[in-house]
Write a structure and sequence with these properties.
By secondary structure, the protein is mainly β. It is 0% helix and 51% strand. It is built from no helices and eleven strands. The chain has a six-stranded antiparallel beta sheet with strand order 1-2-3-10-5-8, with no helix packed on it. Strands 7-6-9-4-11 form a five-stranded antiparallel beta sheet, with no helix packed on it. A hairpin with a 4-residue loop joins β6 and β7. The protein starts with 11 loop residues before the first strand and ends with a strand. The mean pLDDT is 95.
Length: 116
């Protein structure tokens, strides 16, 4: 069993205004799951990308849009989102406060491929 305290986890900016905090991963002993937190500042976005596995998210705070191939869906705190594997998706914070979301993948060492 492992417990990771957020204050001890090194965060990293993955896009301008988008910070990733990820401790549940292969490097820390996970065998088949990845779990993390993303904070998106107002006006910033998690750029469009795909993963080879499903991406499940819970929006904790803030509001914005989740976009896919052809749709834009308004999201806010309390939304639970599921993106199928290999599906283009991104998230933009359209609110005036940081958007915080928790995500999980049913795999380790998952790649993120940027797409248009």
């Amino acid at each position: 069993m492992a417990v990771f305290r957020e204050k001890d986890i090194k965060d990293r900016e993955i896009f301008p205004g988008v910070v990733l905090i990820q401790a549940i991963e292969h490097a820390n002993g996970a065998a088949c799951v990845t779990l993390g937190k993303i904070v998106i500042q107002p006006g910033c976005e998690l750029s469009p990308h795909t993963h080879p596995v499903e991406d499940a998210m819970i929006i904790l705070t803030g509001k914005g849009i989740m976009y896919g191939e052809k749709e834009e869906i308004p999201i806010e705190g309390g939304c639970h989102c599921l993106v199928p594997a290999n599906t283009r998706h991104g998230v933009k914070n359209t609110g005036d406060e940081p958007m915080t979301l928790i995500y999980t993948w049913p795999a380790i060492d998952v790649s993120r491929t940027l797409v248009e």
